[in-house]
Batch of 4 targets.
Target 1
Amino acid sequence: MIKLNFKKNISAFIMLISLVVIAAVFSILSDGIFFYPRNIAMLARQTTIVAIMAIGMMFVIVAGHIDLSVGQMMGFAGTVAAVLQVWYKWDTAPAIIAALFVGILGGVWHGYWVAYRKIPAFIATLGGMLIFQGAKIGLGKSMSIAPMNESFAKLGQAYIPAYIGWIIGSIAVIAMIISVIMNRRSKIKFNFQTVPVGVDIAKTIGITLVIFVAVWYLNRYQGIPMPVMIMLVLALIFSFVAKKTILGRNIFALGGNFEAATLSGIKTKMNTVIVFVISSGLAAAAGIILTARLNAATPAAGDGKELDAIAACVIGGTSMTGGVGSIPAVIVGALVMAALDNGMSLINLETYWQYIVKGLVLTFAVWADTMSKSRSE
Amino acid sequence: MKDTVLEMRNITKEFPGVKALDNVTLEVKRGDTHALVGENGAGKSTLMKVLSGVYPYKTYDGEILINGEIATFHTTRDSEKAGVAIIYQELALVKDLNVAENIFLGKLHQRGGVVSWDKVYFEAQKLLDDLGVEVDLSKKIKDIGIGQQQLVEIVKALSVDADILILDEPTAALTEAEVELLMEIIRKLKAKGVTCILISHKLNEVMEICDRCTVIRDGATIGTNDISELDEDKIIKMMAGRELTQRYPDKTAVIQDRVMLEVKSLCKWSKEDDSKKILDDISFNVKAGEILGISGLMGAGRTELLMSIFGYMKGRQEGEIIIDGEAVKISTPKKAIELGMGLVTEDRKKLGLVLIQSIVNNATLASLKKVSRNGVLNADMEVHETNKFVDSIGIKTPSVDVQVQKLSGGNQQKVLLARCLMTKPKVLFLDEPTRGIDVGAKYEIYTLMNELAAQGTAIVMVSSEMPEVIGMSDRVVVMHEGEIVCEYSRNEVSQEKIMLYASGGCND
């Protein structure tokens, strides 16, 4: 059993180790600036947008498809929110709801063409990418739209005060302890073997430490950045969806074997549509946060970001053939990408080098993953 | 006296748990058209795969002599070089390339890397003319009929100057006229001195065209005779002449009066070609506690029948389906499952299991509602429910968290059954339930079928293994070209009768 688990986790280990290596290298090259609380807060904020898109992308890839439109959807939704608020004076809440609605509609559009009209997702979403890009530029009349209301900008710029940070951290720890206890109870109810109490306690203490250290470190600057908090909540929700719900199981099944899923009575078409709605909806959420952070919507917002999202998924071990993926791993994947961006900017590496390095890391990450898998066969 | 072109001596081939070939000997004389017959699963295809190098040298025991010399084929390319060409039932043509390109695929005439198209077409035309085949060289494979595709395969095989041509059930999908043409071509090949080995279920064809005939049964050679010494009855006897020992558990289940599934005049047309009828006026019923066997040759429409009733096969459909007294319309598998039907597919890897997932995830896939509340799964409940089946049907595994791709074929089949049974079906469809699994696991599945019948489940089993159909079924229907051609009760049925009707021998 332990051996099996270890094999399952090999790719996760490789990823964490590479993250540590990247951090160490940049820390040395930047004379320690990389680990300054301010930079860590920045890094966390930089991770959020790609991470949120990557969560949605993971569902699409797990289902055996791809969504190339998320970058432009992000830009378009951000522009919708900005236009409504700046030009039409909408309040923050309705502007956000409208932008999310645009995202959901975009997902329905893709899902329809892929599931019901059998157009390959690559093409359907490539079309969507061009459509949203056009819509974004046309709607924003090719200019930057600013400024947003203060309440809107907070979504991307605010920090959560230190004491609230501690409260949130504590709630998280309590929730975790409760879930560990419930888990044990359920196992006992079904007469299953439970892991030794010591293991559960050690695990709980470990995670508690991680949570509190993170809160403490971010509090050393200005607190947990608001967008990071949003990202964490979304990650938690969708991790739950992926692992604990019928919907999630259906998506993994139809990506793992479409025919088997159909013959098991799963509504494959409807589930495919839902997958694209999740992806587009989260892209819109990322767009709202981007607009808030920049306090403006720009004509180039989101350009090329779909590739970052895909890269984060792939680095996070999501299988391009479908059926395999995990949200925590995808978040770490996004963190790797962001750490590279952040670190290379810190040491003033020229832009062209940044592209080359990211490309190489992506290739090697996937290679390492493939190697470890073929060896564990 | 003709000399021997091919001799296979004492070939034994084992798969894990199954002895597919046991000391098989085959001797073929130069220039003969040699028939190789035997029921499904007897080992004909395995033997031909040994001959063509699909199973490399040393993965089997025994030796192959071609023109008196020992052959050691490591790949199919080696056997091709030695002049052995094989045409499989599933054609290996590239559908989007044209006829000429397919004939010379991988060996196009070229000069300095540039294809000499004129030469390709010239040579291809020459090959066609030699055999008297009329096909438009510039037509794509997907635009010509299945019969013509078959001919293209033969021409392709001959383009490498094959001395020995193996045809694996070449006429299974052909029309009457196409069969006639193929027969004509085999005669021409014979006149040119090409040796043909013909694998066929259609004994009339064998009698008409072959010189000698080898019968295989249960992986062993039964005998080789000149055709002049044989007739169809004798061949059938040789194919079926096994003693039916206790390979099937006794059925104790009582057949109830309650009809669980009734199908009336079911017709089905192909999704691709609406004028092509796949199922023609099918009517049958199954009662609670009864096992109905469906027999027939490959391509007779048995799987299509199950898949159509189950709502999986697209295409125009007419006729009535009545489940437990209630007329129903089944448009999707989801609906079928909700109505109390279960299907264990014939192709468990492609259509059945999510191989990368665990036993639990596969077992609960069709009953997720049962192990969840408000859409949220209860992982412990899933394991609990799965464990019940692991125990009751004997899935051998250290843990239900093991990926199903790591299990043996028999255990994979049981996981698929577990998924099906978890939905508590009233009507259970089993499509080739024991394909590719070992004898022990087969017996366990038979026992399980009897238990389910005893609990009142109506079972419909499609099987190509005739002894299985006869040993397990209360009633047997035989399908031929999309129709049910006859029905026998347990007492009346025999392999000879099934074979006669399955091969279209009796059309009344």
Target 2
Amino acid sequence: MDIVSPGFTGRRRSGTELPPGQYLTHEFPVLSAGPTPHILPEHWEFTVTTETGEVHRWDWATFTSLPAEEITKDLHCVTRWSKLGTDWKGVSLDTLLADVETSADFAMAHSYGGYTTNLPLDDLLDGQAWIAYEYDGEPLDPEHGGPARLLVPHLYLWKSAKWVRGLVLSDTDDLGFWESVGYHEYGDPWKEQRYAGD
Amino acid sequence: MTADVPTYLDGNAAAGALREVFAVDLTAAIGRCNGCGRTGAFAEARLYVDAPGMVARCSGCDGVLLRVVNTPTDTYLDLRGLTYLRVSSAE
């Protein structure tokens, strides 16, 4: 990052680095389509289910013993706010999927509380996606998706499922919670893919 | 962590959005939850609006009763979570 004063960083970025139709916020708005699940780490698990039905499973201790990465990324919410330079810690999906044999093209993320969102599997690989469990150096608050959430920052934030509990891999691109009622199946903020057909 | 205050409104707050789709005020209609079978006025639902769309949930089981998404050109309405909505025809 360039060494500039924070005040000028914001204005420069708001003019040149935000996707179309977005505004800059320094808050971290909480959006939720339902009550916040409170999942204790000892009750948490994450699973990857392949298209053949094979299930890979991690409990909290196993998951947090995996190599973790410090991640600094910009967030873009389809409700038009963007927050730049957010700091996370999490496990790369490359690590979690390393031993998963699959030829699937798509993944459906499932969350505690019933939320779902669909993504191409390619968008979860090659350093593009994490299961994050710390934000700003602290354990992830339940209101922001703790104990762990999917983080796919190159897509609109509804794809970064809070309270994630698993991925189901599939040969078909089924639609998730918001995608099935008018939101875009992919959601690239730089192409402003907010709604179906954009 | 912030205090666990309710993040939902009561179902009456859906009146405006639903009036754009239906000619009658549906918040007074009696709905049956397709998940737990609870029956009550739609106004008793818990309405989540701080989201990409509007989500009404059953006050008994938190199951999704209704979703409304407004795009620049269309309104999407998903009623799968309701077995029925009973609208009084009496004056």
Target 3
Amino acid sequence: MKSSRIPAFILSLVLVFLYLPILLLVVNSFNEARYSSTWGGFTLKWYEALLDRQNRDLWDAAQRTLLIALASSGISMILGTLSACALHWYRSRLQRINYGILYLPIVIPDLLMGISLLLFLVALGVTLGSGTILIAHVTFCASFVTVVVLGRLQGFDENVIAAARDLGASKWVIIRRIILPLLAPGIVAGGLLAFTLSVDDYVITFFVTGPGSTTLPLKIYSMVKHSKDLPIINAISTLFLILTFLIVWLSQRLTEHQPNRDSP
Amino acid sequence: MTQRKNEILLTAPTLLWLAVFFVIPSFAMFLVSFRPANADGGIEPGWTLDAWRALGDPDYPIILWRTVWLSVVTTAVCLAIALPIAFLLGKLEGKWRGILLMLVIVPFWTNFVIRVAAWRIILHPEGMIRQVLLNVGLIEPDTLLLYNEGAVLMVMIYTHLPFAILPLYAAAERFDYSLLEAARDLGASGFRAVMRVFVPGVSRGLLTAMALVLIPALGSYVIPDLVGGPSDEMIGNKIAQRTLGNRNLPQAATLSLALLVITLIPILVVFLINRKEQADSR
């Protein structure tokens, strides 16, 4: 038993290290004092400040972030599901190339994706803004959705399709009534992952954004960089945390079930 | 023939999207690096090696070296911390394993910018940690916790640690812990048994963890920008400066290609070792 005492000690230190900044941030969002070094009593004034007219741009940024996340997760759900099916059902040279190209956006540093896309868009003379952010987000989200849906397909019982075909079901009926319902939890989980990745992204968005198209991470970044309104950042970060936890909790619930257990 | 048609229908949309917005831009970057830059930050027609020659400027090799050094230290520390944690998590059974694993992953869900921002707020000259350290007398009144290499390293370790723990845990979960008892029975000390039996046993996980930390660390930009000082710049900061502030797109392209070449090294190492292992097991 002695041998596990050192790892247990390291683990507890690491957990403190991992949670300390986040906890302090949440606690400080309720701190009356402007600086985190003293506790000035409980307050909700930083949250109230979020509602001020002068912080309207924060809400605009939040709205834009959510819209881009919704659109990019929607598109990448379609693209990711199609490519996962292609990778799962076919074993050709084309699929080997497809596999390599799909995995690259996951491995390559996001900075490189951002800069190459920016150079390309500038060379084409495209106006930068919400549209280009959307394109960039779909480009890295599609690969992640593919991986999640591919995982779901691995537990797929091919006999169901064969049985449906024997019973005379057409291709569209098989897709609509069998494949899509069976894959649905994987597609939704992939979509939620895409949503969180899109909301989380700073680096790629920073490169492909245009004037007036600020997202929430960009906004928070510039506030932090200029050490402006630090307590307000605490408050908005806490709200952001709650949103992320809700989404992750939801996607965990969806992926928990085994593919064969919730089949119709 | 209809099989082939179905395959193409399924493959084409995503592959075309990635071809247009990922593969072609990567090649475009290569082309832009040979273009002359003009004073307005635009690209002129014609071909030149100016941007490539500028890589020899005394500034860039120092920044490249610092990028590699900070990333390697981050990777080494993350692996050193993750190894005992994975050892423990792999050994635990039942409920506790799940709970502790969850506890390790949860901070990872937090927005990346917010996690880095949290450190900046805590380490702020008026922030809590500095005030505590001052009161205890551990630091001098003129010591800053922010804007130095130590802060960059610590936050890099903070953000990358889960990337090291998860693959190592996955490997430790499959490790047969009775092998350690066998080594102890044969007279090896506890530490020696871990180093000679457990570490080789999870070598695949170590390799994955190494790549998953090293690759994003090399592309760091946010962390040195928010918690580092002017002398802690990494190549990512230079790329951003050349793209937006002091605009020179061909220069940004050559710097990005230099970063790409450096990140390809760990990717290739993992790829080659995996292929060799597959060949050996056949």
Target 4
Amino acid sequence: MNLINYGEKFFDELEIHVLRRREIGAKAELNQISSSSSSDLSMAVIRGVKDSRVGISVVDTDNEERIKEGIETAYKLSRINEKDENWPGFPEKQNYMGKSVNAYEPEDADHYVNTLTLSLKDISEKKRDAMVVGAEMGTVWYKSRLMNSNGIDVEQSDFLSYYVLVMMARYGEKVTPSIFDMDVQKKGELNTERVVDSCLKKLELAKDVKKADSGEGKVIFEPFALAEILQFSLYPSFNGEREVKGTSILSGKIGEKVMSDKVTIEDDPFHEESLSKIIADDEGVATRRNTIIEKGVFKGFLWDHYWAKIHGENSTGNGVRSFRTGSMGIGPHNMVFKEGNRKLEDMIGEIDRGYLVSSFQGAHSSNPDTGSISAVANPAFIIEDGEITGSTVFMVSGNIYDLLNNVEEISDELRPVYMMGRGLYPHVLFDKVKIAPVSR
Amino acid sequence: MVVVLMDIHEAVKYGEKLGGDYVEIRYEEINRSNIELKDGVFHSLAERKSKGYAVRVLSRGAWGFATTNKDLKRAVEDACNLAISSSRAVRDRIELAEIPANKDRVKSKMKIKPQDVDYEDKAKHVRRLEKLLKSKYYVKSSQVRYEDAHGKKILVTNEGTEIEWDINYILQYIWITGKDGNERGAARNMIGNVDKGWELFEEEKFSPEHVADELHRKLYNQMHGIAVRRGEFPIVAGPIIVGIIAHEALGHLAEADLTINSPFRDLIGKQIAPEFVSMSDRIVEGGFGNNMYDDEGTPIKDVHIIKDGILNEIMLNREYAKKWDMEPNGHARAEDYSYPPIIRMRNTVFEKGDHSLEEMVEDIKFGYYLVDFRGGQAELNSSFQVGVQEGYVIENGEIGEPIKDTSISGIAIETLKNIEAVGKDFDIEYGICGKGQSAFVSSGGPHMKIMKSITVGGEK
């Protein structure tokens, strides 16, 4: 029996979102393979509305009978809920930009064990004192189907492969920070050698720990560090719900210049290198490329269906569901911080004294309502006379908008970032960054 | 439940037959209530029913792990094959420290369990909280999230361990955003408990009125606080900040899988702090990390990480206990059936000393009194960061104006040496720690004075 038809016995309208996720991979720690793992999990979220009262149920299954039980649970909860006088209904049928169906062709565990083993061998041959704190290699695949009583019925499936490497070394009593890099691929082989070489190079540079200056200085954020900071201090301001409530620092600023004209930020699931090539968001609304910042000018907020309708707009296809609670929120799919035209080597080469930051500690303690940041650059490296001469740890403080007004250079190459939301980021050189030393 | 147990026992035997030297199956069947009230609208009034298996197999010195909410037999086959596949590449075989085969039923200590409270009453509680939060003109937006759970967890191993838990917890998270003129701010509060049920909200400290008052003070002070000076300053940290330093700066380094690659590795048995400093990961009254057994079935023991200034013990699972030639102490924890257990903290606290807050503040010419946190993070080189959402200036021995939000950082092994005084009070807070997977934790301690080695982030 059609589940939507079944649900319509209870609700005026409803939505069913079924997700299946499979993953297989291998892990290493302490310089050797430690485990292999697989997962095969399904979930379904039912969101139903009766008399403008919403009820939600989440079940860890794609079994039809249990989804029906979930429909009944959601109905009971909707009876308890209060009327949402602003309920705009579910989205109507959409025109999608093509199909997003990629068949899953998993390798078996031996493939990941063997590839990871070769990579570990590569590490030990190149640097005997390097310690692999943790490494993970695998493929994750998902398939989702979103249906609603307005006729939306969209299926998507996709997969990606990843290699994450975390290393450290001891030099006498000194312990380096954990050095991290990763490769993510939607097609083709993982570039394990690039990941290994990148980590080993930084590990060597981390040998000499120096004290950072106190004051203001030039700092290059690597792609991951940039994504970390923006994720917690800037992106929440793009959320349309905050615009409705007047709590975004960007409220009332559409069309205004809010940061350096060197900065362009788009949410673009269709970018050639996108790690999230989805055609529909979690409400079934067609996704699109949304330009949020164009040459420093704020162009507009991201919306899901609910908040867009309340604000008299259309969804930008940015409805994102929490499968933990079933509730909807607004979020990007594939943030692209547009590349510039400088070679990273040239950017470093022109700095007399400055810093290169690989990652931040505490980016998540930024204040999304004020844009205030106070995070620790670690691992970070000192640049002296155009060369990296050692590692350091320092605090970066200030406000994200001040920081983004002081963009000096942007590299010409984008790197995929998978762990701080999905996106593509360049290296960015900021000037007048407020810093205070932490390592002595 | 009898049928499930039989299935699990059969599956464990099947795992042995397929070559598992150690076979462990964890089954969970948990119902969660989720309520999310944002500015007058319940965006989530939801129930989540989850049911699934975690199968972990050690074969020929390597792990295989499979998780499923579909087919247990298939998951056992997968886990065995995965372990065998891994074992072909293993140089040093993984071994487990021995534990007795424990058979037990862990009952909940809750007086009023979440499932005995009507959804309407839960929604009413959340609505009341929102009303109190919105009672101040400067609160522009509020988000109240409530979650509870009830259900069963069963652990069966081929060594004879069979433990069944009556799982219950309560979790409440609030975020408010404020605007007063041109000043903006935000404040958070979190409450979590596994031992106290709905009766928790009858305690003054957790009552909606008290929670709202605390949040109003934090938000108002943040909006009207002064900008912080950037650099190294003396600090007096309140119990919540002390707790998060215990967790981030030291606790993570004392998790054996991280200890092995941290500066702590070579410091066990050595003096690393003044002798009046002691720190533990232990069972605490009301601790969010409390339990009787870990997810390998090891009884939980208090771990006295720093005892009289000496780095004394670390937190272990069975694998790392064997590596370190120590006794397992019950710190293998898994977020849920979709994860294997890894070494985690529970309730990490500094122990009490004998100073009053006034004594700690009186000789500080300029510094900061730091009260509450927003996030924190540790690193292997013992660098730590703690976000601060409530703090005050200390000037000429007195606590003065509030400050805007900031963060502090230091190198833990240096900071420890610079602890000057430990207070005679004690309190804890509640959090969710992320280390690839989530774990409910508490952290806390008394007030503490640190004169050097703390860098404060600031705009000035």
